[in-house]
């Protein structure tokens, strides 16, 4: 096995707990449209598949989207949600423990770091800058950068091609089955964190190559991979 050269990170639920701000925006959206309220706990289960799915789930108050929601309503809801979320200033979101320190250590060690998130691209730069982690990433790929989101491997394959790497030289770090499936679909290794958003399912069910409760363990993992 070649040593790891590139580490791709998910954002929400992996580096950042963004649910408090997302939940406020979702609640404001459903109320504006005359739908029942949603709680932060509910929204925590709804995130991970992009903003369109999140707001559709919020309107449905379920992981399973109500098929009776029409396209016009969903479009209006998405516009409202984006506006409310942008106005939030991301004041309630926060990095998980040891995230910045771990990114700094990996960056200084010479790894190429990339961000691969299903979050709409327009929100990502501001979030990264606000939490002072924007300088660590050589590439930032949002949920609308390519035609398909995770679990599609398109973003990971693009990174492999850009840096002329073999799949075994890249590690995907995430908190949800979409992250792990994207890694498997690209043929690369995966590191699953237990604390994020995974629709109530243990991340171990998706069988990542490595599972941890703490992102600091990532430093040891890449060192182990270098010696396999």
TrEMBL record:
<comment type="function">
    <text>Specifically catalyzes the dephosphorylation of 2-phosphoglycolate. Is involved in the dissimilation of the intracellular 2-phosphoglycolate formed during the DNA repair of 3'-phosphoglycolate ends, a major class of DNA lesions induced by oxidative stress.</text>
</comment>
<dbReference type="InterPro" id="IPR023214">
    <property type="entry name" value="HAD_sf"/>
</dbReference>
<keyword id="KW-0119">Carbohydrate metabolism</keyword>
<dbReference type="InterPro" id="IPR037512">
    <property type="entry name" value="PGPase_prok"/>
</dbReference>
<comment type="pathway">
    <text>Organic acid metabolism; glycolate biosynthesis; glycolate from 2-phosphoglycolate: step 1/1.</text>
</comment>
<feature type="binding site">
    <location>
        <position position="10"/>
    </location>
    <ligand>
        <name>Mg(2+)</name>
    </ligand>
</feature>
<dbReference type="InterPro" id="IPR036412">
    <property type="entry name" value="HAD-like_sf"/>
</dbReference>
<feature type="binding site">
    <location>
        <position position="175"/>
    </location>
    <ligand>
        <name>Mg(2+)</name>
    </ligand>
</feature>
<dbReference type="InterPro" id="IPR050155">
    <property type="entry name" value="HAD-like_hydrolase_sf"/>
</dbReference>
<dbReference type="InterPro" id="IPR041492">
    <property type="entry name" value="HAD_2"/>
</dbReference>
<feature type="active site" description="Nucleophile">
    <location>
        <position position="10"/>
    </location>
</feature>
<dbReference type="InterPro" id="IPR023198">
    <property type="entry name" value="PGP-like_dom2"/>
</dbReference>
<dbReference type="InterPro" id="IPR006439">
    <property type="entry name" value="HAD-SF_hydro_IA"/>
</dbReference>
<dbReference type="Pfam" id="PF13419">
    <property type="entry name" value="HAD_2"/>
</dbReference>
<protein>
    <recommendedName>
        <fullName>Phosphoglycolate phosphatase</fullName>
        <ecNumber>3.1.3.18</ecNumber>
    </recommendedName>
</protein>
<dbReference type="InterPro" id="IPR006549">
    <property type="entry name" value="HAD-SF_hydro_IIIA"/>
</dbReference>
<keyword id="KW-0460">Magnesium</keyword>
<feature type="binding site">
    <location>
        <position position="12"/>
    </location>
    <ligand>
        <name>Mg(2+)</name>
    </ligand>
</feature>
<comment type="similarity">
    <text>Belongs to the HAD-like hydrolase superfamily. CbbY/CbbZ/Gph/YieH family.</text>
</comment>
<keyword id="KW-0479">Metal-binding</keyword>
<keyword id="KW-0378">Hydrolase</keyword>
